[in-house]
Amino acid sequence: MKRSIWLLVLCALPAWTAACGGGGGGGGEIIEPAVPEVVEVSLFDDRFNPDDLVVVVGTTVRWINDDEEDHTVTSGIDNSDPDAGLFFDAPPLAPGDSFEVDFDDPGDFDYFCRFHVDLGMVGLVSVVP
Ligand SMILES: [Cu+2]
After folding, report:
1. pLDDT digit string (tens) for 40-51?
2. d(CA 79, CA 84)
3. Cβ atoms of 44 and 121 closer than 8 Å
4. H-helix or E-strand containing 63?
5. Can you give the C-alpha Rg of the chain in angstroms?
6. How far is the CA of 35 from the centre of ligand 1 (A)?
7. What are the residues whose beta carbons fall under 8 Å from the beta carbon of 75, sequence distance 6 or more?
8. 3-class state of residue 4 by DSSP
9. What is the largest CA-CA distance in the chain?
10. Which of 41, 58, 73, 81 is close enough to 90 for a disulfide, judged by CB 3.0 to 4.6 Å?
11. Domains, the chain, ranges and CATH?
12. Within 10 Å of residue 51's Cβ, how many Cβ atoms?
């Protein structure tokens, strides 16, 4: 019994070391990014996460399919929207694939997945000046 407890302690040590060692690096000068910020949205479990995003003009949003099935990233409300896909429309993204859109104008941009919109796979990007 005692031996198994010691094993637990030893196994936990590397995790503690990593957790304790990660926080350093303060005091460096802040370098402004040379390119507009990229914000990532994960596609997982038939959801966009986060599904409600506020970004500034010039931001690139990158959707990454972290799921085990294909999804699309399609501008508009749903498949019956006559404007669906006019602004952007990712082809079906296989697991691991990603898709990017540069948001250069302010406004609210609804989007959805063509396959799973009926399951509530919808999102919104609000672009502010
Ligand atoms: Cu989908």
Report:
1. 999 999 999 999
2. 7
3. no
4. strand 59-65
5. 21
6. 30
7. 83, 84, 85, 86, 87, 88, 89, 109, 110, 111
8. helix
9. 69
10. 73
11. 38-128 (2.60.40.420)
12. 14
Q: For residue 116, how far is its CA from the centre of ligand 1 (angstroms)?
A: 4
Residue given tokens 């898709």 in the structure block: 99
Q: Please tell me the distance from the alpha carbon of residue 22 to that of residue 43, in angstroms, as a whole number.
A: 28
How many angstroms does the Cα of residue 59 sit away from the middle of ligand 1? Answer: 23
Distance from the CA of 86 to the center of ligand 1, in angstroms? Answer: 18
In 3D space, the residue among 94, 104, 13 whose CA is nearest the CA of residue 58 turns out to be 104
Do 57 and 127 meet the contact criterion of CB atoms below 8 Å apart?
A: yes
Determine the pLDDT at residue 32: 60
Q: What is the pTM of this model?
A: 0.72
